[in-house]
Amino acid sequence: MNLRLIGISAGVLIILSLPLAGAIAGPDFAGQDDGKAGGLLSTLGLTDPAGGSRTRTPARQSGPQQAEAPRPGPARQPRTDSRCGPELSSPQGVEAQTCILAGEGKTWGRSYYRNTGGRALDAVLTVMGPERRTVQIRCAVGAGDEPALCETPKEDSAGAPDAYSAVAEFAVPDDEGRLLLRSGSNSPAPADG
Predict the structure, then answer these.
(1) Cβ(177)–Cβ(160) under 8 Å?
(2) Both ends of the chain: CA-CA distance in Å?
């Protein structure tokens, strides 16, 4: 080990630390001048020549107090009523539950599903309402195991929610549309036994 290099490095560190040590050892840490021009704040240039502190304090507002802005939070969601059929499953690994939803003068259909069968499927969701109104949407059902949903657009309500029904049909696209599962918003619960 080179002792000369270590000695020079130690000397440089001592010389560089002296101004900081003198500033810290000064009698005034608040920037007040005692005539010796010491103090950490003045050494670091945080006081003005008149002896006042240059650190910024928040400006006070004159005039009437302003109300504090509301804190952000979750947006208030409008009330949505739903009427759902039972949760159904097929031997091919499709699980679904279909619902009619209504809120803010709109009605729409939604089918919650999960495809554990390992292949992509097609789904058609149809909402039937009063006055022979029908809305239909086609959804691609991925081959994954994650829960997902298929939903029709929201339409202006033309009657009470119980005047609507929805049906979702899940089929294999490359097998001439072989139906695997049909799930309805008003399907009867499966009988035990």
Answers:
(1) no
(2) 89
Cβ-contact 94, 144 below 8 angstroms: no
Around Cβ 129, how many Cβ atoms within 10 Å?
A: 20
Which residue, 85, 175, 166, 167, is CA-closest to 121?
A: 175
Q: Which of 38, 21, 16, 20 is nearest to 29 (CA)?
A: 38
Taking residues 8-17, report their average pLDDT.
68
Nearest residue to 122 via CA among 161, 176, 166, 70: 176
Q: Which helix (H) or strand (E) holds 3?
A: helix 3-25
Give the distance, in angstroms, between the CA of residue 89 and the centroid of all CA atoms in the same chain.
31
Q: What is the pTM of this model?
A: 0.56
SS (H, E, C) 72-92: CCCCCCCCCEEEECCCEECCC
Rounded-to-integer distance, Cα 153 and Cα 166, Å: 13
Instruction: Measure Cα distances from 143 to 92, 146, 172, 175 in Å.
Output: 12, 9, 11, 16
For residue 9, give both structure tokens.
């490095």
pLDDT tens digits, one per residue of 127-180: 999 988 899 999 999 888 889 999 999 999 988 888 999 999 999 887 667 899
The CA distances from residue 72 to 56, 67, 75, 78, 147, in Å, are 28, 15, 8, 18, 30
